[in-house]
Amino acid sequence: MASVEVAVTGLGLVTAGGIGVEATWRTLCAGVSTARRDPVLAGLAVDVSCSVPDFDGDALLGRRLSRRMDRTARMTVAAAREALTDAALDPGAWDPTRVGVIIGSGGPGMESLTEAIARLTADRATTISPAALPRSLPNNPATEVALDLGAQGTNFAPAAGCASGATALGVARDLVRAGTLDVVFAGGADTMCNRITAASFAQLGALSTRSDDPEQACRPFDADRDGFVLGEGIGVLVLERLEHARARRARVRALLSGYGSANDAHHVTAPHPDGRGARLATRAALADADWGPGDVDHVNAHGTGTVLNDAAEARFLAATFDRCPPVTAVKSVLGHSGGAGGAIEAAVTVLTLEHGSIPPTANHHRTDPDIDLDVVAKAPRRPTRLNTAISTSVAFGGQNAVLAFRAATSGAPA
Q1: How do residues 202-227 score in pLDDT, each as one tens digit?
Q2: Element (H, E) at 405
């Protein structure tokens, strides 16, 4: 089992950084936050978000198909189509029963759910769309992708809060490695920029209150951090056995070498102060990859910009590594897209290994004195060695998922 390597052969992204992989990568390398005042959130305690700009579902998918879906599903299908093209796969040539779709989400369909609640509150229950319920189900994005691709293999949506996307990738990897499926479209999907989500997180005190200076709002690991910025986005990766990819002469973008998950068993919303579960998940991912801590060249951190999460993450990284490798936090640029975050960050980790360059953490001016991390800031960094990386995800309920990637062109870790 351990000798079976799983390749990443396709990427698809829809983020606040742009529509598509290249647009998102350019935005990340520029190191400037996409946060703006959001008219959808006007009048709320916090009205800042990192929403996806200029997404036209009708143009990308066709009016008939687009209008059938909620915003989350529309963007997911668009990202899956990009991943399909990137992987050079032909649905007409594959065995559909060997192709799966696993898309995690913290809570999709909020656009449809918010509209239905408004109609119900206004005593207009008979005008609620019959599609409101199916659109708001957690597995709806995965369902729409399977319908669009004709994929008849395993299809479901892991629900692990903000670790959903990373969990989906880990589960998909295990299914591919076991030979259950040949190809899996895996990732995460969430649209967090809505009034219900914004009001709830504001009440929790989790959001940055720098509404007068949105671009400077999210500051992961910075001494002056005060919370995260809501985001939305989709990340879809195509996974297949390395031998399967080679047989069809596919480009291998990276190898997903390890996966680990664990729970803090500490609190419903707050992380364990020492990042207990994240440390266990990291150990499991490294063991799965057959790496030691010294084999890791880079960490794509969960890095929300909240006081408690950043402190806990810094502690578990310090406890894991004798000397922590360079760290970046892309939520500083793209916002926190909930269950999609881990999948988007996984795709960014693949791009980082491909380009040999770590994108910077935006708004990082002065590292918290209690945080001992080498945070990449100001500009991209090209370290001498960048063959391996881990991507960490943390969620409400103490959920933790860690993914370990290796560059496709590298040999075994040092």
Answers
A1: 999 999 999 999 999 999 999 999 99
A2: strand 399-407
d(CA 38, CA 148): 31
Contact in structure between 50 and 232 (CB atoms under 8 Å): yes
Q: Is 244 a catalytic residue?
A: no
- Whole-angstrom Cα Rg for the chain: 20
Q: How many CA atoms lie within 13 A of 29 on its CB side?
A: 13
Query: DSSP code of 111?
Result: H
Helical H runs in 224-273?
A: 242-247
Active site residue: 162, 193, 218, 324, which one?
Answer: 162
> Does the annotation mark 336 as catalytic?
yes
Give me the catalytic one of 272, 298, 302, 364: 302
Residue 394: beta bridge partners?
400
User: pLDDT tens digits for 163-215?
Assistant: 999 999 999 999 999 999 999 999 999 999 999 999 999 999 999 999 999 99
CB 315 within 8 A of CB 273: yes
Active site includes 29?
no
DSSP 316-347: HHHHH-SSPPPEE-THHHH-B-GGGHHHHHHH
Global confidence as pTM: 0.96
CB count, 10 Å around CB of 319?
15
C-alpha distances out from residue 238 to 141, 142, 365, Å: 16, 14, 36
The packing angle between helices 307-320 and 276-289, to 10°, is 40
Pairing of strands 399-407, 388-395: antiparallel
Asked if residues 6 and 228 have their Cβ atoms less than 8 Å apart, the reply is no
